[in-house]
UniProtKB/TrEMBL annotation:
It comes from the Bacteria. SUPFAM superfamilies: Metallo-dependent hydrolases. It comes from Thalassospira marina. InterPro entries: Metal_Hydrolase, Pept_M19. This is Peptidase M19.
Amino acid sequence: MTATTTSQFATPFAPADSTLSNYKRKHIPSFTWDAHACLPLDPIVPIDLLDTYRAGNIDYVCINVGMDMNSVAHIMRVIAAFRAKIAVHPDKYMQIETFDDLAKAKKAGLLGVGFDLEGSVMLQDMPEMVPVFAKLGVKQIHFAYNRNNSVAGGCHDTDIPLTALGHEIVKAVNASGMIMDCSHTGRQSSLDIMRASSKPVVFSHANPKVLGGHERCIDDEQIKACAETNGVIGVCGFQRFIKSANAPDVPDMVRHIDYLVKLVGVNHVGIGLDTMPSVKGANDFPDGVDNGYYWPKDRGYGPDAGGAAVFDPRKMPMLADALINEGYLPDDVDKIMGENFIRVARESW
């Protein structure tokens, strides 16, 4: 999640136009994986917002269920509500609990859904909390949301190393069947995490800083360190981080994918769109939050910081075909669209 206030959240995607509904596909990837997406963190949210991902022929999406500024009580309500609403629609969705569930959902034509946590404050300084959240469907976690905490540094704060507690929580994540993520994390802490982890590490939704320019983007050293763990960088479709004049489109995504492939190879590139649909009346922060602290204006946020549109997930088939048109082999397109993240899940879950 990236927006600074509820009023600045990206609006729901417009109804599919004829360009999308009549699109003729050239290549159908073996599996399509969106490594990070957001629904409003409110139990009132209709789960059919996930139909946007089904319309993009996405097979698995990992959705945020809480950030550092959300209380444990709030996060538990969100998890309970989302799980219940997914269970009510077994004809459309499947809660992913194990690695084998990915194939089961795909075979049944269902959208597989996992959860992620953006931060570690909800762990309450207890590595023992990691397996508890894992049992509730949390498949992925990073340790700091933009700002420093007792576990790790955030990308919009003083650059600090991973703490001693952070090293213990890395071990807990590796042991509990979660994917270790470094999105939103400070540079030094991310490098420390990648050295400490015994499993692949990902940036579920982050773009190369040389192209995106924003402080939330990652530099070449971080990208290479991620690849050295056998991890994956998920190209983020958020406008400010992809650095597009208008709403991000296929060529913008391809530009970032190309850079990463040239730098670290096709085995370490994926997709993590960071979509943020809004729902009238939903409240992500019932306990109150200082928006200016987590999304500081001087770090490129707020209404004067440029657009906040996100790549439309319904265009994922067009992205796959664009990569074919750019000369990528079908097997390599399959890796980028999902197989690379499947490899990480196989090793982590």
